Amino acid sequence: MTTAATMAGLDPATLADVLRLAGSTGFDRWQEQIKRTGGCADPIRLTGATKTIDRATGHVLHSYSTDQEPGGTLRVACGNRRASRCPACAWTYAGDTYHLIRAGLVGDPDKGTPHTIRDHPRVFATLTAPSFGPVHNRPGNRPCRCGTRHPEDAAELGTPLDPDTYDYAGAVLWNNHASELWRYFTIYLRREIAKRAGLTQKAAHEQSRVSFGKVAEYQKRGAVHFHAVIRFDGPDGPDDPPPAWATLDLLTDSIHAAAARVAVDVDPAGDQPARTLRWGTQLDVQPIGAFGHGEDITEQAVASYVAKYATKAAETTGTVDRRIGNKEALILLGVADHPRRLIEACLDLHPLYPDRKLRDWAHMLGFRGHFSTKSRRYSTTLGALRQVRADYRAAQQREALGLPDPDDNPEATTLTLAHWSYAGHGHTPGESWLAANVRRDIQHNREAVREELPALLDLEGAAA
C-alpha cells in the first residue's frame, strides 16, 4: 500500500512523477495493467487494435484499441528470466522451472509424466570446474589457507589468494566451453551405461533412455557448474519402466566414469598454450528420495534448488547483467577486482579466439550456453507451460467479455483480426517506483497464502 511514509524517501524527481501519475485520469487503468504484468520492472509497450468477428454473420463481437489506454499504449510483461533485471518475471520463470523439474521427479500426467516415474532410478548430480588457482574459502571448521576464518558473507570468498598467478585465461576459456563439456558428458554417459550393462550402445538405447534436466550456476570464484537431475527410463520414455539392469548404482558409476572421460582440446593461439579442458574432481552424485521419507535430497528440495538458480547468472559474482564494450566501462561500473580481471581476460582473448565470441559474453565471464536445459522426454517444456497460462487468461477474458468458447461449440467460429506495433519499453521513474510496490504487494500476498496453507490442509484433514 502506498503511503506518505513510504513516499518520504523518494528523490524529488521521482516523487513529482508519482504525484503526476496518481493525479492522472488513467491512473486506475494503469494500475490494472501493471497488476496484470505482476509488477514487471521493464514492460513492453504496444500500440494497436484487435477485433473479434462472428464469421457466420460478420457481426463484430468485440473491439479493442490502445487509444483508450493511458498514454495510448498497452503494457505487457517483459518475460526476462534474470532476477536482477525483473524480479516479477523471474519469479514466473522460476515457478515454471520448478514445475518442469518437479514433473520429471514426482510425475504429472498433465505435463507428460506418469506418477510411476517416482520408481525410476534418478540422481542429483553436480559437475564443477577444475581449479585455476587457490582461492579464499571456508573449509569446514578449519581456517582458510590464508589463515583467516572467513564469515559466510565475506567479500574475499572465492577470490584468488594470489591474483597474479591465478589462471584467468583458463577460467574464462573453461566457462566458454562448458556447454561442450556437458554435451560430451551426455555422449559418454550413454556409452558407459552400455559398457556396464554388457550391451552394445544400440542395444542399450533400444532398452533404456537417459533423461535429464539441468541448470547452470556460478560459483563465487566465477566458474560455472551444472546441477542436473538424471533419470533412467524405459525405451519409450517416462511412461515406460526401465529394464532390470538399469539400477541406481549403475547410473551413479556411469556418471563418474563419463565425467572422467570428457576432454575438450583448445588449440594454442598467440601467447596462449594448447589446453585440454576437463571437469573438476569435485563431482557429487546423490540419489533423489521421495518426499516425506527422511532422505537428505528430496524431490521438492531438488526442484526448488534448480528453480532458484534458473533466474540467476554471473551478476551473483559481482559482474554486471549486460554486455560490456570496453575495459574503461568496468571502472565506471565499479566492478570488483576479481570479476573485472575475468572480464578483461575475455576481452584480451577475443582476438585470439574470434569464433568463441568472448567479447560478446565477457559479462557472463565467457559462458555462452543456456542456463536451463533438458532432454526431450524429461517432462513438459517451458513453452507448453506458458501456453497453458496464456490459454487460461484467454478463457478468463472471453468469459468477462461474454464471447463464445470455441471448445463449447466448434461450429460457432470467430475470427480475430489484430495489429500490434512496438512502442518502447520500461517505466518513468514514478511508474517504476509504483510498479515495484505492486510487485511487493503481490509477493507478500503469495507468502501469506504459503504460510497459511499448512494450517488449511490440517483443517481439511481433520474435517475428513
Automatic annotation (TrEMBL):
Domain of life from the UniProt record: Bacteria
Protein's UniProt name: Replication initiation protein
